[in-house]
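Q: Here's a chain of 463 amino acids. Please give me its 3D structure as tokens.
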Amino acid sequence: MADGLRRLVGAESGRVLQEKLESWYRDYEINSCDQNLNRCCEIIELNSEIQGQLFTILNETSREGGHYAGVETIKTRLLPWLGTCFSCATSGRLFETNLSLTQDSIEKERQLRELASNQTFQLQELQEELTSTRLQLSHVQQDLKTSCAQEKDALRKLDRLNDYEQQIQILRDEISILDAQKSVLQSRFVRSRSPSPRHSESKSSSPLPLRSCSPGRARRTNASRRACLVARFGDIYAQERLDAETLLRTYISDMEMVQRIIYIAAVESFHAAKTAYRQFKIRVRDTLSLGHSGPESLEDTVLDYIVRHEDLYDVQASVNEVIRSMNINPKISFPPEIDFIVISTLIRELCRVAFSMQTLVPPLDVAFGTDGELFSETKYHRSFDSDFTAALVAYHVWPALMENDVVIVKGEAVTKRGALWSRRSRSRSRSRSRSTSPLLAHHLSRSRSPSPLRSGSPSKWAY
């Protein structure tokens, strides 16, 4: 024991500890945080060495006193102090834990600052790229405006060029027509100098007005004209048909008869318009064939002429023909004091549309329908007052529009059980023809090329 105590006294550890404490106390206010922490750590290390030597001396002293010597002192003095030390040690561990957490927090904060700095730098780079992109976009928009202006100039020049080409083609057509007229006049002059029974016929005028046309236009505009005509056919069904139906209801109380009249008017309008188109086409072909030349075929030239000169179509003649056919139709009747001329607006519009539809490639036509035929879902809609369980058509309300036997626009039909037989029994007592009213005669006299009455064959009225 004396050796350990002697070494402790000789090392003067207590005096060194006191000096370090006094020196730290003097310099505490002027030291930095790191310096004060280093001083504290040095004192703690020195104090730990002194405590270790004292515990060694305590152990040696307790052994010198025997097995039970110093027990009371250890119980009353050492153990309470050790408990305090353990508490301090726990506090120290808590301090170390707090310090570790503080260091972790500082490290995380440093990482967050670095991350924020990197994000700020990236954001600045993105802003610079966005500014550069906006500048490039502005340049591209300016270039696009310039290109659009140049394209518009080119298109205007192209339109002018097309106009020039059309004018040249028109002049060529006029030259061809003039050549044809010249040939006709020359042939007439030659025939007039030689006696012939046809001398009087050679003085007749040209079969149709000669106007300029644009070859190829009909086929170029075929798709757009087809779409417009199909839409117009639907508009007639939705507007003119209902107007005619309302007008007829003021004279006829039977709704079925009203709908039959309108349906037959539609079918007859297409028939009259197709007949007029064939006659008109023959006249045009005969005239243009005399002086036809050029890369286009004669049929294309004829079709182009008809498309450009549809105003030459005598629609009133077709209207008169439709009314004349309806007057002798055994399936419909009308009060004798009123004539079918009251629905001439509907008939006129149908004739115009039907005539224009014949200029399409392929042409459009209405479907053939007969009373008592099997109802087709692909061809007709059922009217709201139909018997939806009936399989046969009692009568038709509106024809379906066809293109090469393919339905483009559905028609409308009425299906009822037993209605066909009752209609047939009522039709036996109906007059099969009607006299022409003075109003109709006046309109018929206005026709430029009236057609003779068509024969009343049974197949003609199979609606």
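Q: Can you summarize the key feature?
A: The chain is about 65% helix and 5% strand.
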